[in-house]
Amino acid sequence: SYQRFADCYRCFYKLQPLMTRSIYDQFISQLQAYIQEEIQEVKEEGNLELLLNSLDKIVEENENREEPAWRPSGIPEEDARSAVVPYLLKHRSYLRKVLKQKEEENGKVAESVLAGRERIAELQQLIQARKRAWQ
Predict the structure, then answer these.
(1) Distance (Å, whole) CA 87 – CA 31
(2) How many domains is the chain partitioned into structurally?
(3) Is the pLDDT of residue 29 over 90?
(4) Rounded CA gap, 135 and 133, in Å?
(5) Residue 97 sits in which domain range?
(6) 59 found inside a domain
(7) pLDDT > 70 in the chain, percent
(8) Considering the domain boundaries, does residue 122 fall inside one?
(9) Dihedral Cα 28, 34, 35, 38, nearest 10 deg
């Protein structure tokens, strides 16, 4: 405040009260300009305007949300488990689906291999029969 400023420079204030007021006004205006400049630099360096806008957007999107937002419980093991377990369950169901597909593919391949072996055995018998007939 001006009164505090005048108290700090009491001797000068007693001699030149108008000059003290003028110095105070200049000091305040320069200080405000400097602070605004510093804030603008911080905003530009940290890209704060974009980040704050995205934060506002997130807040707006979640205003009508009925369930409460996730908060840490304070126990790191439980927090990690609550974050990791759903992912692992989802991944497990995906892996089971892939495994089922691969087992089906393997079954089909095994059937074709058995059919191929049977055909080879038939052909070998046919070859043996023709060989005996030719001899």
Answers:
(1) 53
(2) 2
(3) yes
(4) 5
(5) 93-134
(6) no
(7) 100
(8) yes
(9) 180
Q: What is the mean pLDDT of the chain?
A: 88
Length reported for the chain: 135
Residue 23: pLDDT above 90? no
Decide if 79 is inside a domain: no
pTM for the full predicted model:
0.41
* pLDDT value of residue 107: 95
Single-letter amino acid, residue 62? N
Nearest partner of 95 among 111, 87, 109, 110, judged by Cα? 87
Residue 125 lies in a domain: yes
How far apart are the C-alpha atoms of 120 and 10, rounded to whole Å? Answer: 114
Amino acid at 87: Y
Per-residue CA distances from 123 to 11, 87, 96, 101, 117 (Å):
122, 53, 40, 33, 10
Q: What are phi and psi of 74, to 5 degrees?
A: 100, -10
Domain end call among 29, 46, 63: 46
What is the token pair recorded at 129? 């029969």
